[in-house]
Amino acid sequence: MSRAALVIAAAYGAYLLYAFGSGALYFYIHPVYVIPTLLTGLILLALAILAARAPGASSPHAAPSPPAIVALALPLALGFLLPPQPLSPVAAAQRGVETASIGRVEAPADWSVGRRPETYTIKDWVKAFQADPEPSRHAGTPVRVSGFVYRDERLPRDWFLVSRFVVQCCAVDAQPIGLPVRVAGGAPPEAGRWVAVEGVWEVAEAGGQRRAVIAPTAVTPIARPDQPYLY
Fold first, then answer.
1. From residue 209, how far is each of 39, 54, 134, 155, 219 by CA, in Å?
2. Alpha carbons within 13 A on the beta-carbon side of 64
3. Domain limits, the chain
4. Which of 103, 126, 130, 204 has the least CB density, counted as fewest CB within 10 Å?
5. What is the pairing mode between strands 159-166 and 175-182?
6. Phi, psi of 139 (to 5 degrees)
7. Cα–Cα distance measured from residue 179 to residue 145, given in angstroms and rounded to the nearest whole number
8. Among 51, 25, 48, 47, which Cα is nearest to 38's?
9. Its pTM surpasses 0.70
10. Considering the domain 89-221, what is its CATH architecture?
11. Has residue 189 got a pLDDT over 70?
12. Cα–Cα distance between 218 and 129 in angstroms, integer?
């Protein structure tokens, strides 16, 4: 193996360790794949070190071409130089945020998380509304969730969605979901801002349909959590 190939293999291993140590891996993959990815980084580093110590490690016969080296090195450079970022509200707009009443997160008819409603996540509420879509049966139930603000043009101007991405495997398959919030007599928070919402469900008309919407008692700006996705 050529010296260039050894350096690239070692650099990819180092990047995976760096992404694990910085917490950036959680922006890209489901937590169940974090440890296998860490082991992959360790194995790449170990194999590169062993190959470098082997006789003929610097043989030019296996050297990658300059275009191949650039193609392999560019993602590494971007990974190390650019700050890691989770999926943004811009990505949510591109993919379309599904609301509690039309979300794609499937739930069985007898679904129940077996917890107090105020401990439900946004994903839990989407499942709850799929199990029982009748808005009036949720009216008065307490809600306490957090997410980023998404403005949906299909909703009234004093409504917004408190949203999160749900990740099944990695950021590629992440689906944004949200719960509608009505700020009666006030302006919704700035789009993209992270907020904690407390309130109760009520029934309202929107787009000619009866909808469940959160009547908030508090909408509080918060910092983006270290793990911004739901799983």
1. 51, 71, 12, 11, 25
2. 15
3. 3-81, 89-221
4. 204
5. antiparallel
6. -60, 135
7. 9
8. 25
9. yes
10. Beta Barrel (2.40)
11. yes
12. 22
pLDDT at 90 over 60: yes
**What does the alpha-carbon distance between residue 230 and residue 57 come to, in Å, rounded to a whole number?**
45
CA 16, CA 42: separation in Å to the nearest integer?
8
Q: Which amino acid is at 189?
A: P
- 66's CB contacts (< 8 A; 6+ apart) are none
Contact predicate 82/50, CB 8 Å: no
Nearest C-alpha neighbor of 164 from the set 111, 203, 222, 83: 222
Residue in the structure block whose two tokens are 């191949």? 68
CB 192 within 8 A of CB 88: yes
State residue 105's pLDDT score: 42
Q: How many CB atoms lie within 10 A of CB 49?
A: 14
- DSSP structure string for the chain: --HHHHHHHHHHHHHHHHHHHHTGGGGTB-GGGHHHHHHHHHHHHHHHHHHHHSTTTT-GGGPPPHHHHHHHHHHHHHHHHSPP----HHHHHHH--EETTT------TT----S-GGG--HHHHHHHHHH---GGGTTT-EEEEEEEEE--TTS-TTEEEEEEEE-SSBGGG-EEEEEEEE-TTSPPPPTT-EEEEEEEEEEEEETTEEEEEEEEEEEEE-PPPSS--B-
Are the CB atoms for 192 and 92 separated by under 8 Å?
Answer: no
